[in-house]
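**User:**
My hope is that you can spare some time for a protein that puzzles me. This is the protein in question:
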Amino acid sequence: VDQIGDPNGIVSGTTNITTHPIHVKIARDTVKLMNELGLISQGFTFQSGAGGTSLRVTKELGEIMRQRQIHASFFSGGITEHHVALLEEGLVEYLYDVQCFDKVAIQSIARNQKHIPISANLYANPVNKQRIIKDLDVVILGATEIDLNFNVNVTTDSHGKIIGGSGGHSDTASEAKVSIIVAPLLRGRLPLIKQNVTTITTLGKNIDALVTERGIAINPSRTDLLTKLK
């Protein structure tokens, strides 16, 4: 063959940053929530998932960091051009990269000494005392379903059929100081919130907040967050 693979196909589907008005609203409300909780401060640490809304949160977060000249210690997880831009502007000290999600990230990891490739072991192994995610202040994650106990499913559809891998969903949610789910209340005609999820990917005790286009729900167990927001 003339060439192996087409790198232009790396970014597709859910790994495209969203421009949908509902998802943009969710992203902006998420950044506002982070700000009100005091999570956007000098030296903070952050991770966002690879979904379009999560990536939009990263972009919106970058705008606040530029305006207020706030510098993050590190961003971790799957890395995109939006993370790279903040590194190259000097607003993030290190990128700990467990997966490159686009061509810009691939090029960056080859030239930036502070863009550091890491193994899954260093990223999230629960018995590795040096695991990166234990130092996360906030993580932004998606959901296929979430139930009234804040249990989240990203593994199966409503019939129990596997629809994708969960990545670091449960790992980061259990370790981050604040874990935030971002998702619209409806996808097509399917509701996000269920009495009980079909499959528990991440336990509700590790989920702190849900941001939708209609409002924000805080896990009742996080009385500290509720007090601060009130």
Q: What stands out?
A: The chain is about 30% helix and 25% strand.
